[in-house]
Amino acid sequence: MAVSDLPLGTTILTGLIAVLVYGLNKMIQQRRFYKDFPTPPHSFLWGHLNLMGEIMGFLPSARKYDMPGVFYLDLWPASCGQVVVTDPDVAMQMTVTRNFPKHEIESWFIDPPIGPGNIVTTNGPRWKYLHKIMRPMVAAKVMKFRSIVHKKVDSGEAFRLEELTQHLTFDIATLSDNIDLSEKRGLGIMYLILREHLDEMRQSKKQELDAKFLQDAITQVKTLLIAGTRTTSDTICFGAMLLSVHPEIIQRMREEHNRVFTPGTDATYELLTADPYKLKELTYTTNVIKEVLRFYPIGNIVREGVESITYQGREWPTKGLMICPVQMTVHMDPKIFPNQLKFDPDRYTREDFPHHAWRPFERGPRACLGQPLAIEELMITFLLITRDFDFTCANLKPNKTPRVGWTDLDLTFGDRAFQEFVFEANSRNGMLMTVKESNWSS
């Protein structure tokens, strides 16, 4: 008897049974895959879906269940499985030694607002091409930023520091690609992309710009302006927040700025203009920035498992899984960063410091493209601001007990100690501040 001759109800029931049998077999295969690997408590029915609240933090899960540097999460059928990496050596394997491709899940979130084919989510030869033409662009706009801060001093009112720093980083991102601060002519991002493409057109003897190139150019500009400016802006905000309760660190920064450059901000700017490479001599200020980024890394990446990874002398399968190296878990691990809750710039000068464990921008060829630009901006901003202004967080509501187990900053700053996710991890409520002129005497 043909299937078409069966009653409709029987056909539907048969189909449902087939789907259920397939789903059950698939679930059994998925659950069995994880039985020989380290995982948080695993449910045959739910996998790890019943732990999603904890899993979203990664760090609480790793500590609560005493997970090793590589562990697995079974999220079927809601998502593909995950390999969570909290060991810095394994993270180096997948980002530097082997450079696993980015997982397609990143494009699900980033492509809609920016456009497909952007430098953040693309892979292979296309990424290499885009990386070649998208060099960081920087210019000295901090003096303009200073004048705005001066107005806030005069008003005495609380203000959202994030709004000011966003204007600063946007100005920098749209100007010159020449690190020499004496360069006055601005080469915009679009100009640099066009220049590269015109060179290729001359070599290939093409006469017209094609539509695909124009779309590519717009996508990359949006990538840098949307994803590249707010991260640095918010790092400045969190830096100001942390330094506001560490006057001893500010004192050492000010002394270094006088010693390496010269007393007086205007004179310092002139010297910086003449010799921008002196920034490299600000070793303590550099370590302060590193410590800010340890507490507030730029963000996680997700890689696609293509081959096994090696950990503790064993090969761990990753094919078909998402691999998630979690910077915050590494940065707040007391075995890697002793006294991890302390804001301590001096930790980076110790001989036993694990440099590869500090990874706020990630590492390897797919590390944050804007890292040199970001560090340059942060160095110049702190150099030209720190000696003249004292920032204070306004309207703080400290928590009586820590909300989470991995930091106690909210005992001082309240919920402002935690980032909030918009397009990326941002400062909360714009980082409300007051500012006054410093009475520090150089």
Automatic annotation (TrEMBL):
Transmembrane segments: 6-25
Pfam assignment, any one: p450
Cofactor annotation: heme
Residues involved in heme binding: C368
The keyword Metal-binding is assigned to this record: yes
Sections of the chain in a coiled coil: none
Keywords for the protein's UniProt record, in alphabetical order: Heme, Iron, Membrane, Metal-binding, Transmembrane, Transmembrane helix
InterPro entries xrefs: Cyt_P450, Cyt_P450_E_grp-I, Cyt_P450_sf, Cytochrome_P450_monoxygenase
Gene3D superfamilies found in the cross-reference section: Cytochrome P450
MF annotations from Gene Ontology: heme binding; iron ion binding; monooxygenase activity; oxidoreductase activity, acting on paired donors, with incorporation or reduction of molecular oxygen
Family, as annotated: Belongs to the cytochrome P450 family.
Protein name as annotated: Cytochrome P450 3A30
Native organism: Clathrospora elynae
Lineage: Eukaryota, Fungi, Dikarya, Ascomycota, Pezizomycotina
